[in-house]
Amino acid sequence: MTLQRSFSLLLAGILLLVHQPVQASTAQDFDACLSHLRTKALDAGHAHDTLNQVLSSVTFNQRIVELDRSQAEFIETFLQYLDRRASVDRVEKGRQLLREHRVLLQRIADEYGVRPEYIIAFWGMETNFGTYFGKTPVFDAVVTLACDGRRGEFFTNQFFSALRILEEGHIDMEQMKGSWAGAMGHTQFMPSTFLSYAVDYDGNGRKDLWNSLPDAFASAANYLSAMGWQDGRRWGREVILPRGFDYSQADIERSQPLSHWRKLGVRQVDGRLVPDLDFSAAIVLPQGHRGPAFIVYDNFHLIMRWNRSLHYALAVGYMADRVAGMGQLHAKRPADSNEGRLSRGEVLELQQRLAALGLYDAEATGRIGAQTRNAVRQFQQMVKVPADAYPTHALLEQLRQRQQDVSVELSRVDP
């Protein structure tokens, strides 16, 4: 490892520590927070008995705080993510469950306008078809995160919503378990989502996302329908881009009429041009220009409202297609498809180096967002490589080399 690289990684690690928020994890701090939450909950109309039941048993969980702040050191590429989340075995299990629950799912589809394969796909992605809901008590999760402070207001509202679920008798507190962030049941609804969209589809007087598949399936469909799901339209599809395609146009935020992409020569995997229609569509390249390409529609954006991850949304759409009987990806895998994406420390270094070139003016966080992608695209255009906005190890090395070359040139200038 070069001295320059060692210094860069050390600097990245120091800055990551600096940017970590202060946590209130002492027993005294937590007790003060519980007292504050009790007062706010009483002011909001929640019952003394419910608060006594919940707050007498809730505990601060430091592991939840660590999970909320952490990011995997090596992030999966899209193809790695897809292989794990939409595997052949999981697709086959989804098809089996689609056959098993076809009557119920079709009835829900007729009522809510969300086809069965999509409900199966969300179910598989969220809890592996109900085999793992999470083991964290929901109140431990939401109270810990409310008291930690980083997203205090959001999780305080989740705490109030969880109290309401308990007060309305939908589930016993002992059964109210879920993910480390408080997501619950077959569909992993947050408490506020539960209150807004959960459905008592089996008619037993309770909205039970843990033990009732009719309630869980109908709740998922109701959520998507309420957001504006367009029945009869796809989420998107894999496409083949024409030779010479301008990769700077490939961006989830750069929608054009589908007819625009047709005129540019974008084709379906069967070789036909995409349809000559005027509804909105965007091209996305989840693993850069050397990976698969997709064109995505309005329903795709609704999937991203369920979960803001591009990888997640593409996997849901792909899983739904596969469960419905469609084939695997058409695109050939790049030779380095198993190479992990940049670590958080490397992303932080990338942002710092882009900032030094005047291409990035936001806070360096080690997380990739729209501003980082835009800066990457500008650098790619500077060095005349495909401007797909996808940061790679090779791109980071180009940045290091460019700045090293500048340093060498400056050292040759007479003082």
Short overview:
With 415 residues, the protein is mainly α. It has helices at 3-19, 27-43, 48-55, 62-69, 78-85, 88-100, 102-112, 116-127, 138-148, 152-167, 191-197, 213-227, 258-263, 298-306, 310-323, 344-356, 370-382, 393-411; strands at residues 136-137, 177-178, 236-240, 256-257, 267-268, 280-284, 293-296.
Structure description:
It contains 18 helices and 7 strands. The strands form 2 sheets. It has a 5-stranded antiparallel sheet with strand order 4-6-7-3-5. The protein has a two-stranded antiparallel sheet with strand order 1-2. It has helices at 3-19, 27-43, 48-55, 62-69, 78-85, 88-100, 102-112, 116-127, 138-148, 152-167, 191-197, 213-227, 258-263, 298-306, 310-323, 344-356, 370-382, 393-411; strands at residues 136-137, 177-178, 236-240, 256-257, 267-268, 280-284, 293-296. Helix 16 (344-356) packs across helix 18 (393-411). The longest helix has 19 residues, at 393-411. The radius of gyration is 24 Å and the shape is globular. The protein has 415 residues and is mostly helical. Helix content is 52%, strand content 5%.
